[in-house]
TrEMBL record:
It is found in: Membrane. GO terms for cellular component: membrane. Pfam families: Band_7. This is Peptidase. It is a single-pass membrane protein. The chain crosses the membrane at residues 12-29. The keyword Cell inner membrane does not apply. InterPro entries: Band_7, Band_7/SPFH_dom_sf, Prohibitin. SUPFAM superfamilies: Band 7/SPFH domain (SSF117892). Residues 30-194 form the Band domain. It comes from Polaribacter vadi.
Length: 276
């Protein structure tokens, strides 16, 4: 019985082309890099001198030699938070929690990675922050750290960090001191002292307000006394008699029946007698 099945024969050289295609795909995938938003990249030349510090790659699609490696890092503004134990000016240990905003310099990303490594935050930024925080906090008392000096401390830490990182290809934008934790006994003592100071200020304010009110009343009374004295001195007997005569004339014009006695009374003023 004849075999009707047709034998499938793989084309000559087909395996070779498949191998070539796979190799091309692998080569292409290793030769292409996509750098995301807010990121930058530098080339590590495996067969060359290592990090290429002359060129930095920005966002988008890039083709690199398959034997090289693209190192991609964030170059937008970032932040890290930390808590550290530091000593105040009188040797008291306090815990300071804060956040720092920083940004690698894109054009110098190659120099940054070449000199400080890929983990440059741990190698460069953390030590600078710790040193600056210890130096600045060590200038202040616990009371100052706890209350009124927070913004000043932030600015001084920022200034010191920027000084340490000068020409290190890493820019620090802002420092925020979020919390200062003191031992409970010291914290309670400071809060009690602040409360007493506030109560004292309120008491002084009430005294000052009462004193001002008393002065106002005194001035008002003195003013009224002076006005009355002036008015009293201006009212002579002659003026009073003239005012009385004017009043009598007005009353005499009334339709009610009356008797006007001229020249009566101790002062010679007219006297009006009458009824409805």
């Amino acid at each position: 019985m004849a075999n009707n099945q047709m034998d499938f024969k793989f084309p000559k050289g087909g395996v070779f082309f498949i191998i070539i295609a796979i190799a091309v795909i692998i080569l292409f995938s290793k030769s292409t890099v996509t750098i995301g938003p807010g990121e930058g990249g530098v080339i590590f030349e495996t067969l060359g001198s290592g990090i290429d510090t002359e060129k930095t790659y920005g966002e988008g699609f890039h083709i690199v030699a398959p034997w090289n490696r693209m190192i991609v890092r964030k170059v937008r503004q970032q932040s890290i938070s930390n808590e550290m134990n530091v000593l105040s000016v009188n040797g008291l240990e306090v815990k300071v929690s804060g956040t720092i905003w920083y940004e690698p310099e894109l054009v110098n990303l190659g120099n940054l990675i070449k000199t400080k490594g890929e983990d440059y935050e741990r190698e460069l930024l953390d030590p600078a922050i710790n040193a600056a925080a210890r130096s600045v906090v060590g200038r202040y008392t616990p009371e100052q750290l706890y209350s009124s000096k927070r913004d000043v401390i932030e600015q001084e830490i920022l200034d010191e960090v920027q000084l340490v990182l000068k020409d290190q290809y890493l820019s620090v934008k802002r420092v925020l001191v979020e919390d200062v934790k003191l031992p409970s006994t010291i914290r309670i003592a400071i809060e009690t002292k602040l409360k007493q100071e506030q109560e004292s200020l309120e008491y002084e304010f009430r005294l000052s307000k009462a004193k001002k009110e008393a002065e106002r009343q005194k001035i008002d009374a003195e003013g009224k006394a002076i006005a009355n004295k002036i008015l009293s001195e201006s009212l002579t007997d002659k003026i009073l008699q003239e005012k009385g005569i004017e009043a009598t004339i007005e009353l005499s014009k009334s339709p009610n029946s009356k008797v006007v006695v001229i020249g009566s009374g101790k002062t010679g003023m007219p006297i009006i007698l009458g009824n409805q």
